[in-house]
Design a protein that fits this description.
Strand order of the largest sheet: 5-4-3-2-1-6-8-7
CATH class of the largest domain: Alpha Beta
Strand content: 15-25%
Order of helices and strands: EEEEEHEEHHEHHHEEEHHHHHEHHHEEH
Distance between the termini: 18 Å
Shape: globular
CATH topology of the largest domain: Nucleotidyltransferase, domain 5
CATH architecture of the largest domain: 2-Layer Sandwich
Amino acid sequence: MKVLVVNCGSSSVKYTLFEMGNEKKIAWGLIECIGLPEAFYKRETVKSQERKESVKVANHTEAVELIINELLDKNKGIISDVSEIAAVGHRIVHGGDKFSKSVLITEKVKEQLKECFSIAPLHTPAHYAGIVAVEKMLHGIPSVLVFDTAFHQTMPDYAYMYALPYEFYEKDHIRRYGFHGTSHNYVSQRAAVLLNQPLSDLKLITAHLGNGSSITAIENGKVIDTSMGFTPLQGVVMGTRCGDIDPAIIAYLIDQYPEYKDGKTLNDLMNKKSGLTGVSGLSADMRDILKAISEGNKKAQLAFNMLVYSIKKYISAYYGVLNDADALIFTAGIGENSAPVREAVCKNLNALGIELDAEKNKERSSEERFISTNNSKVKIIIIPTNEELMIARESRRVIGNNE
């Protein structure tokens, strides 16, 4: 059984084809800069090395057509007929309050997804374009929507509600939704395996740290709270996002600077020009920040300290909410690869039973591994995330259950 996972961005299509018998990917690739004069296509299969080329791709339909034709190519492809694909799984960033679990695509589901455009205007329309493109190229093959927000739908109302007049929740569905749910779900399941305990018996704090970052408190396999909110802007300091700020700052900026009276300009400021980039004046890339720190750059050091401090605060808060923790899990680009960030985050958390083994932390590896001391009450684990595999699993489950 093969499942194709598709992740459509505003100007990109990323894909992975899995053989679900052994859950191994057999083909994967990415088309970027869709709609621009020159797009870029890189792809690889288990039978061939990575190939890159510039292409002309006007829209998502053309991108998906190019991908499917490549998969079917007699010389370079990996399948002989589209019927070998049992299902297509689509990553959807925001399901609003309409979708609390993965669903099989129907015309009704597509109409409901359109109603989510307004709460994720940078993402959902692109996802929808990808869905339509896949339906055109793979007519009759079932597609499944897998939502980043779905895993967080177990949060209690007192955790997901904002203390605004209740009518804004009723009318505009303003509430905390949380993101990176597919990643948090995957690593929590892997943690249970590594700890050799049922997920239903565990209290976990999962830290998805990348250009976008979120921290989640998980008890008995259910999300209790998560740092991102109505949008992915809330929470810890990130690569280009400011994270938590006093909301009155927004009103102040609107009053003081005419250019920020436009919502899009203000949104761009907080989402694309803040965070590590805004404070350091350099980059959103942690490697650039660390290099600048080594050269004595004080703004880079400040940006690093702010990011680390914001993560420590959420970990400490969620330890309190859970009233204990069995494990702290690091995942995603920074979480998996930046030993200095992990070390700084865990420093002085020994009162919570979080004790990092400095030597284990420094070891370079792409494998799942424990980096806590033998005496650490809370186990510290690095688990490389695999959102694509989780989407493939969900798609297989949904079509198997005919949901």
